[in-house]
């Protein structure tokens, strides 16, 4: 079952803001680079800054979650560069997370809004988590048998029902 992961309001605003900021800085930087009065070192520093902004932007774009696929054996987080596979047999529990329980979540090593929310996060209720999300509503927590916590945010919460159905030990003829 395919599940889209469109950007939520916060991620959309951050993505637009960062895009405008990076574009403005790049245009300003290019004007400095093409200024004949600037010395070579200053031009090199500005060029490095523009390159760094471009690398950050492209990295965030390539690792953004595009959607989720639930099949017989896995949950797949589709990303442009490298999809993430979550084996169903390694899942301990899955549940919907309330927005209140995610308040005061701290990003420890990840992206907090440019094309999504992904990477390592922490809060007092759930501890360390790995996020592959694009929004802060419709949040699903996947707790692995090894206690690793993964956060997903599909557009439709029917994905939770599909995962739970696939986790139930039933006759294999029930599956697609």
Walk me through this protein's architecture.
The structure is a single chain. The protein has 176 residues and is α+β, with helices and mostly antiparallel strands. The protein has three helices and ten strands; from the N terminus they run βααβββββββββα. It has a six-stranded mixed β-sheet. Strands 1-2-3-4 form a four-stranded antiparallel β-sheet, covered by helices on one side. Strand 9 and strand 10 form a beta hairpin.
Summarize the helices and strands and which ones pair or pack.
Elements: E1 2-4, H1 9-33, H2 40-62, E2 67-70, E3 74-78, E4 84-87, E5 91-96, E6 106-113, E7 116-123, E8 127-133, E9 140-144, E10 149-152, H3 158-167
What's the short story on this structure?
By secondary structure, this protein is α+β, with helices and mostly antiparallel strands.
Keywords:
176 residues, 10 strands, 4-stranded antiparallel sheet
- Mean pLDDT, all residues: 92
Strand order of the largest sheet: 5-9-10-8-7-6
Radius of gyration: 20 Å
Helix and strand pattern: EHHEEEEEEEEEH
Number of helices: 3
What share of the residues lie within helices? 25-40%
Strand content: 25-35%
Low-confidence stretches: none
Number of strands: 10
Supply the helix-strand structural class.
Answer: alpha+beta
Major sheet details: 6 strands, mixed
Give the overall form: elongated
How far apart, in Å, are the first and last alpha carbons? 9 Å
